[in-house]
Amino acid sequence: MTNRYAVVLAAGQGTRMKSKLYKVLHPVCGKPMVQHVVDQLNTLDLKELITVVGFGAEKVQDQLGEDSHYVIQEEQLGTGHAVLQADDILADREGTTVVVCGDTPLLTGETLQKLIDHHDAEKAKATILTAHAEDPTGYGRVIRGGNGQVERIVEQKDASEEEQAIQEINTGTYCFDNAMLFEALKNVSNDNVQGEYYLPDVIEILKGRGETISAYQTPEFSESLGVNDRVALSKAEKLMKRRINEQHMRNGVTLVDPDQTYIGPDVEIGQDVVIYPGSVLEGTTFIENDAVIGPHTTITNCHVGAETTVKQSAAADSRIGARVQIGPFAHIRPQSNLGDDVKVGNFVEVKKAAFGNGSKASHLSYIGDAEVGSGVNIGCGTITVNYDGKNKHLTTIEDDAFIGCNSNLIAPVKVGKGAYVAAGSTINEDVPSEALSIARSRQTNKEGYATKMKSIKKD
Ligand code: UD1
Ligand code: CA
């Protein structure tokens, strides 16, 4: 097999986005556009992947990390000039180079593979990925000769009225014979309306030399959507959302209303999971079989166990066991680890806390920086007093302890195994195992006092 390389164009400023965020870093379904592109390219067997960066170079490099090599395009003189920046690394190599724009987030690895297969089968020196667009405005148009052969691409701004009527567009994705690409790029001029060095001009140059030029037309126009402004960004979001949601539904997940369900590209969901509207599943989240999520629930980077229910709640960077009941209106903050059969009920906030199997905090509590054993019952209104204004301290509640309602546990503190804390207690010393701790003032009843008060006449 010939060596394969890829160049991702990501140096443009993205003026039309009118944003301080660099264009290719705008997220689609939670993942930056350029990351979508690189992830799809990485499904191909590549020897080298190079991203051309310019504006916001460091931020793009931070995002892609070691997924790519980088070359800098100091001045954005056009897509042809951008590819030429990879000259030092690629020019002398034998093989096939795929060029993709960093602003086409919907492009799939399968379509790229079909493009390469077509290129190989046709023994072409350049193959353009084209698509039929209902509204081709803004895209380069594919000009074919009388025999149907591709001759050149003309940009919207350079196109005659007749050319503008052509609906076959250049998706901005190509396959080239590597050596010929770099050789031809040196002959691209900037003699056009925008004064830019256009990559598509390579097609005309190679054609002029009698080389074989081919085009592979994908039936999926939606994949070629180029995001130049926020209207297109919202279209990309919608298309990607639908693609992701349909994939999950085909895999056996029930989305009660897919239009109102937002699932990130790296989320994994097991069979017979039911997701109610208004749910947002983000990052690297994994939901196991038969869980019920939502309505109105946000889960970010969590592992959620089988048969667990999360209603009207938010959870982030945490592990949640099987058959757990969360919400409505609970907040699971980072570094929490809930065992199986746990209950975290309404208006309970959990932060950096571990709950052993079967433990419950059913109502109105704050449990932060805590290690809670198994079989623990935390009464309504319990607060772990974890912060002294400077440092955070740990609360330990051992197995089978029972914390009465409205208790304050002033950390660092430990409640021993099987111990009881009486309701309304403020605990600032460890409670021994199996003890009952009462830490509140004694009640005094003044018999008949109320009647006496009522009998005192007002002036
Ligand atoms: C480009 C194509 C057009 C095609 C369309 C598909 C050219 C001249 N035109 O137009 O035929 O239909 O994509 O979406 O190639 N970039 C750089 N450096 C530069 C200029 C651009 O890295 O100097 C990068 C941008 O960051 C972007 C990509 O190249 O990711 C495409 O540039 P853009 O300006 O969006 O080109 P289009 O006008 O969309
Ligand atoms: Ca574009």
Automatic annotation (TrEMBL):
Keyword tags: Acyltransferase, Cell shape, Cell wall biogenesis/degradation, Cytoplasm, Magnesium, Metal-binding, Multifunctional enzyme, Nucleotidyltransferase, Peptidoglycan synthesis, Repeat, Transferase
Cited Pfam families: Hexapep, NTP_transferase
Protein name, entry field: Bifunctional protein GlmU
Main location: cytoplasm
E.C. numbers: 2.7.7.23, 2.3.1.157
SUPFAM superfamilies (UniProt xref): Nucleotide-diphospho-sugar transferases, Trimeric LpxA-like enzymes
Stretch list, region Pyrophosphorylase: 1-230
Residues that, per the record, bind Mg(2+): D103, N228
Keyword Cytoplasm in annotation: yes
Sequence positions that bind UDP-N-acetyl-alpha-D-glucosamine: 9-12, 23, 73, 78-79, 140, 155, 170, 228, 333, 351, 366, 377
Main EC class the enzyme belongs to: transferase
Gene that produces this protein: glmU
Compartments, as annotated in UniProt: Cytoplasm
Classification via Gene3D superfamilies: Hexapeptide repeat proteins (2.160.10.10), Spore Coat Polysaccharide Biosynthesis Protein SpsA, Chain A (3.90.550.10)
Pathway, per record: Bacterial outer membrane biogenesis; LPS lipid A biosynthesis; Nucleotide-sugar biosynthesis; UDP-N-acetyl-alpha-D-glucosamine biosynthesis; UDP-N-acetyl-alpha-D-glucosamine from N-acetyl-alpha-D-glucosamine 1-phosphate: step 1/1; Nucleotide-sugar biosynthesis; UDP-N-acetyl-alpha-D-glucosamine biosynthesis; N-acetyl-alpha-D-glucosamine 1-phosphate from alpha-D-glucosamine 6-phosphate (route II): step 2/2
Cofactor-binding details, from the entry: Binds 1 Mg(2+) ion per subunit.
Sequence similarity: In the N-terminal section; belongs to the N-acetylglucosamine-1-phosphate uridyltransferase family.
Positions with a binding annotation for acetyl-CoA: N386, Y387, A423, R440
